[in-house]
Every structure is written in structure tokens, then in C-alpha cells.
Write a structure and sequence with these properties.
By secondary structure, the chain is of the alpha/beta class. The protein folds into 2 domains: 233 residues, P-loop containing nucleotide triphosphate hydrolases (Rossmann fold); 222 residues, 3-Layer(aba) Sandwich (Rossmann fold). It contains 21 helices and 10 strands. It has a 5-stranded parallel sheet with strand order 2-3-1-4-5, sandwiched between helices. Helix 1 runs parallel beside helix 10, helix 5 crosses helix 9 and helix 11 runs parallel beside helix 20. The N and C termini lie far apart (81 Å).
């Protein structure tokens, strides 16, 4: 693949002087028109060491309007980033529509480097490439134009450049021990990179290999490829898919209707079991800190099914410093300007923390599907995108627990009326809630599809019979504790008569004093 980038292509100095102002004007004009477009551009600049990646990035920033370009030099992950899934730091940096994001270093850097250095097994490397392809395909579907540039130089040219740089006092500081170590493994890097590029050069995100020996040729080629990508999208926007039409009908026998909504707890049972499960959860939450794990809780369900009440019973058992509740509503302008999963990626918890989502990314296959906010292709592909997302969470040690709370249409009507008549509950009921009641069956059908498609071995759905709030709250807590115990070990909740930690410490001190006296 790289042989075609070792042919000695050059641009004469005089020709470059003629072409440069023309290219700069064309780039600025394309950027100006991009401002009003509904897509963003992500440019990945990769390549072998000393191929001119930094220099090329600097030239692009000089030729373009830097105010409309976000540049990200991806280095070793920070402590916070190491506590999150691998793609977290790339998702957070995605540019909004109308802008260009340049990644100097990217989601390719670590897999290629580690595999070339013998630090990543073959199977793991293949899995990373598969995840990258899925990630890029999703971005392409979500109005991101991907431009991937690989700057290549021969082994001989690389050696000469590194030697020259090492002897130049003004540039020697740029060389690190890591750079020198990588250059010694040129053949390994070339072999691994060749494979990575072939495996991930797709119709929506093709690789462009640029011969990097002559800097003028390299700069002009990089600029031309970026310009062509923007112009092509501006001139040939993808056909707009019509919104999803038609409402699904629930089957007479389905997984939700099979639930027994008549289950109840008496007040005394409720108080006793609630206290026991909250104590259990409190102890398990400490295990998250000790074991450097985190948890993501997802609450979906019928309107007025009691999601908020169940969440409050969970948070009462947690340390307020270690959890965050996200009530998901319609996306903001900032969120609409990026792929739909962006607003959830940026709220992922650090080690020891719990993120609770009251509504979630499943809105794509529920409300957006039924209200016609996205096309049929959008919500159908979302199932696999969501499964990929949750798989990445679990790979990073995040415990994902998903709840669907369900009530009958009659109970929903009773709760709606109760909210209208209760002063401190009136804010919970809107015209939209009443309008959505007409689609009660459609939401049930969509939920059944969602459960069938996304209840996986690593992140299964837990269905909660919520007709009686007491029963639902205890079942949510017990299910959550069971799930955490399966991952973290059994919670050792103190029993009546057990000595407190303070009493035990005081007893140990007394024993030491008695031994000294003896």
C-alpha cells in the first residue's frame, strides 16, 4: 500500500508559489460555505515518525480560518480519560456542524503503536479495528465527513530526517526517546499500519496516503484532499430520508404484557425491605470506589411509571459526592450539532461514581422513532450503535444496569389526573404527556422491539412491574444490588449487635495498651 508513496513526487518552488494563494482562497471559500451546512469535518493526520504531521497541521491552520478549526493533539490519556472507555476522549472532541476538527494523533495511534511494539495480541488488535470501523461508520451516518490522511516516507528518508533533527539545536528537543524507539521498529510499524489502513479504508472513511518526502507536495496534497471532501459534500448532499412514518401496533402477547402488574407490598413490608436494600446499596457503592469501577443506571418506561421516585430511593443510599442524575429532555442546539450519542458520552462517570440517566440514548428508538424526529434507517441502525456503545462501557469496567418501568393505561390515567390535582405535582404533567397517551400502544410496541434488540448478555433489560410504587421501588433497588454484587462481591451489611468500625478501632487500641502493660 505504501509503495505508491515512495515515487519521489515533488512540486517546484515556483509552481508552489503560484498554487498556494489559489488553494488558500479555495479553502477559505469552502469553509465559509461550510458554516451554514449541516455537517462537520473530521481530519485525521497520521503517519510514520518524522513524516511531517506537525508541519502539515501548522500549514493547514495558516491557510484556513483557524477560528473555525478545532485542533486536537492526542497524547497519552490523562488520569480521568484512563477511567473512561477508550473512545471517550475522541467523542468529547468532535466538532459541531459547520466546523473542522483536526486530530493530530487519533483512535488509530494506540492500537497501531502497541501492536507494532508487541504489546497487543493479534485478536485484540483485530477487535480494535472492528470497533474503529463501527465508530467511523456511525459518524458518517451522523453528518460527519471523515478525511483520513496518512503521511508516508521511506525508511531511508526517515533515518536522514531524524539524524538531521538530532543535530539541530533548535529542533532536537522535538525528538523523544519514544520517537527514537519507534524509528528503530520502522518495518514493524509499516507492516501493522499497512494492515490497519487496508482494514479500515471504507466507502465512508477512505484513507488517503500522501508521499511526504517533499514538503510542498505534501502540503498541497493534504489541502487538496480536504478541499475536495468539503466541496463534494456541499455539492452532493446525501438524500434526506423521510421521517419514520406509521405507528407500530403491539402484539397481543408480548414481553411487557406478560408481566404481573398485580404485585404489591404492604406498607410495613415496604419500609422494612426498602431500608434493607438501601443499606445494602450504600455498602456496595463503597465497593465501586475500592475496586475502581463505576456504574451507569438507565431508567426508561411509560410516562408516570415512577422513574423519578425510584431514582430518589436510590440516591438516598448514595454519597452525594459520587453520583449524578441526568434528566434527559430534548437536545439543546449544542447537542443537535453533533452525533446523538455525544451528549451521553460526555457524562460518563469516573471510577467510584454512579451516573443515573432518567431517559437516555434509547430516545432514538422510542420517542424519536414514534414522533418522526428521525428516519426509519436512523432508528433501525441505532440498535447496533447502542449495543456497541454499551459494550465499550462494560469493557472499560462500567457496570450497566437498565430498567424499564411499566404500568397499565388505566393506572397512567389515574396518575395523570392525580398530578393535575396536586399542587407540587402539576409541573410533572404537560400537554405533551396527554398527547402521548394516544400512542400508549405504539410506545409499548417500540419498547418490545427495543428490549428484543438491546437486551444483551452484558447489559440486559430489567422489567419492573410499577403498577404499585412500593413494589417497583423495592424491586429496582434489589435488582440493582444483585447486579452490583455479581460484579463487586457480596455486601457485608452490619447486623444489629455488630460492633461499629469506631468501636472495633477503640477495642484494638485497648488491646495494644493491655499488651504493653503485660
Amino acid at each position: 500500500m505504501f509503495d505508491v508513496a515512495e515515487l519521489g513526487r515533488k512540486i517546484a518552488k515556483e509552481d508552489f508559489k503560484t498554487q498556494e494563494p489559489i488553494m488558500r482562497e479555495a479553502l477559505l471559500d469552502a469553509q465559509f460555505r461550510l458554516r451554514e451546512a449541516n455537517f462537520s469535518v473530521v481530519v485525521v493526520i497520521a503517519g510514520v515518525e518524522a513524516a511531517g504531521r506537525g508541519e502539515t497541521t501548522n500549514v493547514l491552520l495558516e491557510w484556513m480560518d483557524a477560528r473555525r478549526v478545532e485542533t486536537h493533539a492526542i497524547d497519552a490519556p490523562t488520569e480521568e480519560q484512563r477511567e473512561k472507555p477508550r473512545f471517550y476522549r475522541f467523542w468529547k472532541r468532535l466538532p459541531p456542524t459547520g466546523k473542522v476538527g483536526i486530530f493530530l494523533g487519533s483512535w488509530y495511534t494506540r492500537p497501531i503503536t502497541r501492536h507494532a511494539m508487541g504489546q497487543m495480541e493479534e485478536s485484540a488488535f483485530e477487535k480494535k479495528l472492528t470497533q474503529i470501523k463501527a465508530f467511523e461508520r456511525m459518524l458518517a451516518h451522523e453528518n460527519v465527513v471523515l478525511v483520513k490522511l496518512w503521511l508516508h516516507i521511506s525508511k531511508k528518508t526517515q533515518r536522514k530526517r531524524i539524524e538531521k533533527m538530532a543535530q539541530d539545536p533548535e529542533r532536537a528537543w522535538r525528538l523523544s526517546d519514544k520517537d527514537l524507539a519507534y524509528s528503530e521498529r520502522y518495518d514493524d510499524f509499516r507492516r501493522v499500519a499497512d494492515r490497519a489502513l487496508r482494514r479500515t479504508s471504507t466507502d465512508v472513511a477512505p484513507w488517503k496516503v500522501i508521499e511526504g518526502t517533499d514538503r510542498r507536495y505534501r502540503h498541497m496534497q493534504a489541502a487538496q484532499i480536504i478541499l475536495d471532501a468539503i466541496e463534494d459534500r456541499l455539492g452532493n448532499p446525501p438524500a434526506k430520508e423521510p421521517p419514520s412514518s406509521g405507528l407500530p401496533e403491539p402484539q397481543a402477547i408480548n414481553i411487557i404484557r406478560a408481566l404481573n402488574l398485580g404485585q404489591r407490598l404492604e406498607p410495613e413490608q415496604y419500609r422494612e425491605q426498602l431500608n434493607a436494600e438501601q443499606a445494602r446499596l450504600g455498602w456496595l457503592s463503597r465497593r465501586l470506589v475500592e475496586q475502581k469501577r463505576s456504574a451507569v443506571l438507565v431508567f426508561e418506561g411509560s410516562d408516570a411509571a415512577g422513574k423519578g421516585g425510584a431514582i430518589r430511593r436510590i440516591t438516598r443510599a448514595l454519597d452525594a459526592r459520587y453520583y449524578q442524575v441526568m434528566s434527559v429532555a430534548a437536545p439543546t442546539d449544542e447537542e443537535r450539532a453533533r452525533p446523538y450519542l455525544w451528549r451521553f458520552w460526555r457524562h460518563l462517570p469516573r471510577h467510584g461514581h454512579v451516573a443515573i440517566f432518567d431517559r437516555s440514548w434509547y430516545g432514538r428508538v422510542l420517542v424519536e422513532r414514534l414522533e418522526g424526529f428521525c428516519s426509519q434507517l436512523d432508528w433501525q441502525r441505532a440498535y447496533s450503535e447502542i449495543n456497541d456503545f454499551e459494550e465499550q462501557l462494560t469493557e472499560a469496567g462500567v457496570i450497566v444496569v437498565k430498567f424499564w418501568l411499566t404500568i397499565s393505561a388505566d393506572e397512567q390515567l389515574r396518575r395523570f389526573k392525580d398530578r393535575e390535582q396536586t399542587g407540587f405535582k402539576r409541573h410533572k404533567i404537560t400537554e405533551e404527556d396527554w398527547r402521548n397517551r394516544d400512542k400508549f400502544g405504539a410506545y409499548e410496541a417500540a419498547a418490545c422491539d427495543m428490549i428484543a434488540q438491546t437486551s444483551t448478555e452484558i447489559a440486559r433489560w430489567h422489567l419492573i412491574e410499577a403498577e404499585q410504587k412500593h413494589f417497583a421501588r423495592v424491586k429496582v433497588l434489589r435488582t440493582l444490588c444483585d447486579r452490583l454484587e455479581a460484579q463487586l462481591g457480596e455486601a457485608k451489611v452490619p447486623q444489629a449487635g455488630d460492633k461499629s468500625a469506631f468501636e472495633k478501632k477503640k477495642g484494638r487500641k485497648k488491646d495494644k495498651k493491655d499488651k504493653k502493660k503485660a
